[in-house]
Design brief:
The chain is an alpha+beta fold. The protein has four helices and nine strands; from the N terminus they run H-H-H-E-E-E-E-E-E-E-E-E-H. It has helices at residues 2-24, 52-58, 61-67, 174-177, and strands at 87-91, 97-100, 104-105, 113-114, 123-128, 135-140, 146-151, 161-164, 169-173. Residues 2-8, 14-18, 20-27 and 29-42 have low confidence and may be disordered.
Length: 179
Amino acid sequence: MWTRLLKLGIFSIVLLIVGFSLACNGRISPSSDEQRPGQEDDNMPSKVVKTDAEWQQLLTPEQYEVTRRKGTEPAFTGKYYEFNENGVYRCVCCGNELFSSETKFDSGTGWPSFWAPISEQSIETAIDASHGMVRVEVMCQRCAAHLGHVFEDGPPPTGLRYCINSVALDFVAAAEKQK
């Protein structure tokens, strides 16, 4: 019994180290409230802060579960999984522009996948050690909505796969955006 507990403990530590390493290797960095060098405050969208009750009134139950409670939609069910129009994907909670259709690709995972956000300032990342895994969570920089996770198995040029829940996104077609 002690051997099993020791192995489980060592395995947990290794997972945390791997997750921390992924987050600190310079490609996926945990978010920070500190201003990054060269980053202007006026380029950052203003923060959106609402009470839990306000979010529940604004969002559908599924949107609330995913974006505010860090849930996930079932694979291969989201409205943007096999969606291929040109435009911009925005945060369903606050309208912050997150991803462009130009960086969307078919990862075969069952969720919309992107190889880069619109800008580094549109998202935040943090270590997520829930569900017995260590992953890097992706959140909206403006309202802290949970969007999904980012992995290092994406295509060039970044090698990243931002695996995002459709329910966390609103799509604006390129023609609509120009109006």
